[in-house]
Design brief:
By secondary structure, the protein is of the alpha+beta class. Helix content is 45%, strand content 12%. It is extended and about 120 Å long.
């Protein structure tokens, strides 16, 4: 057993990891896999790029980030005890509170450090912890800016370029022995600031006003502006080196002095533990489930009502995409909800694939064929479809009404509403709710505080009441939308939602089904031309009733009102008066009121008396008096009618406009075909071509599965073997690499052929250089199996498969010093 040599580079530290640890790194940072690194050195290089490091830092929780920030202001490398001291302090400022915090920090620090190591942000043994250079550049202070901890540059950094004479003046004022060596002077000044006793004596001699200036700078920002003639307190601090000049008008509190004033702490408030999600109410779980189920049924009905209202062709699409403000207001009026809520329902239907553009020249929104399949499902299955689509959607309806980066308004169903963070935030909010006891409604502010702790760099807000960052806004929208959708009931997570998150849609539907009332096959007709549905109706009854009557009010019971227009709508759909009488008699638990029968008969007697066709359009009627009445009516002027015959009028408008115009005048015309037959217009006939639901916009590279991770680790290991393999004829010392990194072996064609043939006979492995058809060069370790026809067939240890290589593309070969492929 020999002694383990500490790693000297990040690549060496990664090379020493086992396969499981490498897979953990690639799982935590999937951007490193695009493309798969050729070897460990490439992996380490890619892990140190700025874009990748920033992405990794953004996924750290607050304490792991505070640990990285502490390492950034520590010496490099830093022992574990130094890191712990930067987080706990030396205990000089607070007593018992810091002792308790120190205990929590000591317990949490190993886990935070393990996270940083796993993500290759920190490497090295506990005695020599190193933060990767790019992370240090991002998090560490410099003479130009402070670190996230509020600390400024070190004495050495702040005094670089300072004249030796000025350094001597500072040493003398601080009571330090003079030296003509600038390096010794900087070292002496830094030693003063880190010596607790001498630094205490220096501060004891400072004016009270000077201490007040330090109090304003100690927790950052450490920079301050000074005038050419500074005040006495500032002059005293500058003369004694406690404020060092970084420009003619700017001074900085050096890091060593700030750490002394902070009692050794890098952060004012270390946060080793996540803040708890607090409850505002504890409700009966059964009441929560009932409320959520009622809201889930209302959500399904609302989406269905929205799509039915767009059955014949919905609103037109703006040139830039989406709904206009006027159309959104109209939709909100139809659904009897505020405009933001109407935007949410439209976006939900779109995300579920139930709504799309019809693709016509005059583009409009319309239901998709998938809507018809969805409408036939039981209510609980329709809800799971909506909830599942909402969880995965990157469409963010809360942005509607805002502005994009160019100041343009964001419209409902528009192209700029995708936010890749939305699914992750929704799942995380619901996971926090699921961790509470059943029936517990959380405090929204505590939920936001927890999310900020988990991803502090993903949001911009720092104050508890500030919710301006996107993640916080998405979290608040999630809580509101969860209540609208029936995910939660009375603020608490419902049982069927827990099942949806844990077991899937089938289990959620099974739990929701008993809470949804069975559809009814009857209504209650009343003498005031209304019908009351005391609960949800069976689909054929609901469809027919929606054509025959208008919804007047919704709630626990739905009230329908019969009007001449609604009866005419049913007649337009091909129903006769006898059909309507039979339908009402069959489905009413009360006798059919006489006024309703009279209304149906009266509208049916006049329905189709006038016929509309295309001339541009025409009106024909066997009763000449009716046509004379229409021509004499001033309201018909806009239709530009003229008599063609005693029983026919021609119009200069299209048939649809003529139908609408005459109906507004109080008539009940019917459209007819070229053969003279009455055209039946069935509700819901217009559908888009088959459309897929919009694909969510991913947030960064997808997390690789176990199969891909395993293959990637094998490829990296094999590539590393090829890159670090040792040749028998290498002139370097034993164990040295065969050549400089990236160089290929070089042999003549005859030497290459002879060596490969010999290896095929003996079954030994070779190190080769290979250039593919695209001109990309690589190093590989192969075990030749057969050589013929100018090709060598071999097992490629780098690719972990059998491949065939043209001999003319092999730049050279070399035998391995040992069997390094086992």
């Amino acid at each position: 057993m020999g002694m383990t040599t500490p790693p000297r580079t990040l690549a060496e530290a990664l090379r020493a990891r086992d396969d499981e640890s490498l897979a953990g790194l690639l799982r935590a940072r999937p951007d490193l896999l695009n493309p798969v690194p050729g070897d460990i050195t490439q992996l380490a290089t890619r892990a140190g790029t700025r874009a990748s490091v920033v992405r990794a830092l953004e996924h750290l929780d607050r304490f792991a980030l505070q640990t990285a920030e502490a390492l950034a202001v520590a010496t490099d490398p830093a022992p574990y005890e130094t890191l712990l001291g930067l987080l706990t302090g030396d205990g000089r400022d607070d007593g018992e509170r810091l002792d308790d915090a120190g205990g929590a920090i000591s317990d949490a620090l190993p886990g935070a450090l393990a996270t940083l190591r796993e993500q290759a942000l920190v490497w090295g043994e506990d005695e020599r912890l190193r933060l990767v250079r790019t992370a240090r550049e991002i998090l560490a202070p410099s003479p130009q800016h402070a670190s996230p901890t509020g600390l400024g540059p070190t004495v050495a950094e702040a005094t670089s370029g300072m004249s030796p004479g000025r350094l001597q003046e500072i040493l003398t004022a601080a009571g330090l022995p003079a030296t003509h060596d600038p390096v010794s002077a900087v070292t002496a000044l830094a030693a003063l600031f880190t010596d607790r006793t001498r630094m205490g004596e220096l501060l004891d001699s400072a004016p009270a006003e000077a201490l007040s200036v330090l109090d304003r700078l100690v927790w950052g920002p450490p920079y301050g502006e000074v005038t050419p003639n500074p005040t006495p307190p500032v002059k005293w601090l500058r003369d004694h080196g406690l404020l060092l000049p970084v420009s003619t008008r700017t001074v900085v509190l050096p890091r060593e002095a700030a750490l002394h004033l902070r009692a050794g702490r890098a952060h004012r408030v270390p946060e080793p533990r996540p803040p708890a999600v607090e409850a505002v109410a504890n409700r009966d779980p059964q009441a929560v489930d009932s409320a959520a189920a009622g809201q889930a049924l209302l959500a399904v009905d609302t989406v269905e009502e929205l799509l039915k209202s767009w059955n014949g062709g919905g609103p037109p699409i703006l040139r830039a995409g989406g709904l206009s403000v006027r159309e959104l207001k109209k939709t909100a009026t139809t659904l009897e909800v505020p405009e933001p809520v109407a935007a949410f329902w439209a976006e939900l239907a779109f995300a579920a694939g139930l709504l799309a553009s019809d693709g016509e020249a005059d583009e409009r929104y319309a239901p998709t064929p998938a809507y018809d399949d969805w409408a036939e499902l039981p209510a609980q299955d329709r809800w799971t479809r909506l909830a599942t689509a909402w969880l995965a959607a990157t469409r963010t309806s809360g942005l509607v009404g805002g502005q994009d980066a160019k100041g343009r308004a964001l419209s409902a169903l528009g192209p700029e509403l995708d936010r890749s963070a939305a699914p992750e935030v929704r799942h995380r909010v619901l996971a926090l709710l699921a961790a509470l006891e059943p029936g517990t409604a959380p405090d929204p502010e505590s939920v936001l505080a927890r999310l900020r702790w988990e991803r502090p760099l993903r949001g911009a807000s720092v104050s508890p009441g500030d919710t301006t960052d996107l993640r916080s806004r998405i979290a608040l929208w999630t809580l509101n939308e969860s209540e609208l959708l029936g995910i939660t009931g009375r603020g608490a997570l419902a049982t069927h939602t827990r099942a949806l998150l844990d077991a899937g849609p089938a289990e959620a539907a099974a739990l929701l089904a008993p809470l949804i009332p069975e559809p009814l096959d009857h209504v209650l007709l009343q003498a005031d031309l209304t019908a009351v549905a005391p609960g949800p109706l069976e689909r054929p009854l609901a469809d027919m009733l929606s054509a025959l009557a208008d919804i007047e009010s919704k709630g626990g019971a739905t009230v329908y009102r019969f009007t001449p227009g609604s009866v005419r709508r049913a007649l337009d759909a091909g129903q006769s008066a006898a059909d309507l009488h039979a339908f009402l008699a069959a489905h009413s638990r009360t006798p059919v009121p006489q006024p309703l029968s009279y209304l149906i008969d009266d509208v049916a007697r006049r329905h189709g008396h006038l016929r509309i066709g295309a001339a541009s359009s025409y009106v024909r009627c066997d009763d000449e008096a009716v046509l004379n009445e229409i021509l004499a009516d001033k309201r018909s002027v806009t239709l530009r009618l003229r008599r063609l015959a005693p029983t026919a009028l021609a119009a200069q408008v299209d048939p649809a406009s003529l139908l609408e115009g005459l109906r507004e005048m109080g008539y009940a015309p019917a459209a007819e075909s070229a053969e003279g037959d009455v055209l039946i217009t069935r509700a819901g006939a217009r559908r888009t071509p088959p459309r897929a639901a919009p694909v969510p916009v991913p947030e960064g590279p997808p997390v690789p599965d176990a199969t891909l991770l395993g293959a990637a680790v094998r490829a990296i290991r094999a590539g590393d073997t090829a890159a670090t393999v040792v040749r028998k004829d290498t002139p370097e010392a034993p164990g040295a690499p065969a050549a400089a990194p990236g160089s290929l072996p070089r042999t003549t064609s005859a030497e290459t052929l002879a060596t490969v043939q010999a290896a095929a006979m003996t079954g030994s492995a070779l190190w080769i250089g290979y250039v593919n058809a695209d001109g990309a060069a690589s190093q590989r370790v192969i075990a030749p199996v057969r050589v013929e026809g100018g090709f060598v067939t071999a097992y490629d240890h780098t690719a972990d498969e059998v491949r065939t290589y043209p001999l003319h593309r092999i730049t050279g070969v070399a035998e391995l010093a040992d069997d390094q492929t086992t």
